[in-house]
Every structure is written in C-alpha cells, then in structure tokens.
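Troubleshooting: if your tokenizer reports a length mismatch, compare your output against this known-good record of 71 residues.
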Amino acid sequence: MKQNMGSADRVIRILLAFLVAALYLTDQISGTLAAVLGLFAVIFLLTSFVGFCPLYLPLKISTKKAEKKAV
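Known-good structure output:
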C-alpha cells in the first residue's frame, strides 16, 4: 500500500477529527449527525496515520509530493 497523502492533507484530516470530537463533547452535535460525523472522524484519523486514502486510488489522486531521486 503506497502512501498517497501529503502532510497538509493529513494535518487537515486530524484537525477535522478533533473538531468533530470537540463538537460532540460540548453537546453541539448529537444523535444521527454525531454518529455519522464520528464515523468520518475515525476514518480521517485512520487514513491520516496510515498515510493512505482508499478513495484516492480509483480517482488517481495523490497529495504527496514526488520524491526526488538521488543522483
């Protein structure tokens, strides 16, 4: 599984997950909305730590910068 997420993409996903957690813990969201956003938050955290987004694969997207080859 080749990484396809850049550092900015990963940081944004982590921040969004923490935002959802904060909204839930302060009772700003609840019920079905909280469950759906919570699921997305967990997915965002997992993909951020792994550095791979399965949705990017069929769309041929990569936010990771190309590595420079040593000469």
